[in-house]
Hints:
It is built from 6 helices and 2 strands; from the N terminus they run βαααααβα. Strands 1-2 form a two-stranded parallel ribbon. It is mainly α.
Amino acid sequence: MNSNLYKTPEANLDTSLPSEIKKLYSPNQVACGTIGGPIGIIYFLASNFSALGKEREKQKTLVIGSLFIALLIGLMPFIPDEMPGSVFTIAYVVIARTISVKYQMTKESIINSERHDFYSNWRVFGMGLVCLVVSFVVLMAPYLILDLMGV
């Protein structure tokens, strides 16, 4: 208690700046980002989990995605050549969009949020292409190395 009755009490004023706007990919942007293959799925989902502060889900995405890529590398020699690549593309799109809608924010939620905004579609396209190149390298590198070694 203050002994000076005429002194104004100290107010606890919040002088912090408003929290910064976190950018997210909408579920449709995440689905479109799957042009980057399995690396694209991992990148776009992990990026959103990180922006939402869901570090545990981000780590799970990275671990499960890495295990999936390792499994895919191991199974690639056994996938028939006649199997169309569109099967994988459709699977990537469905999986990515479903996870985004269920565990992240919907487009409407992002629109209505004061703390979130969208990344541009150009960024989705650019990052999707970068992820496509990385996916190609990651998936094909083991086989190219074995081929160069003559195995």
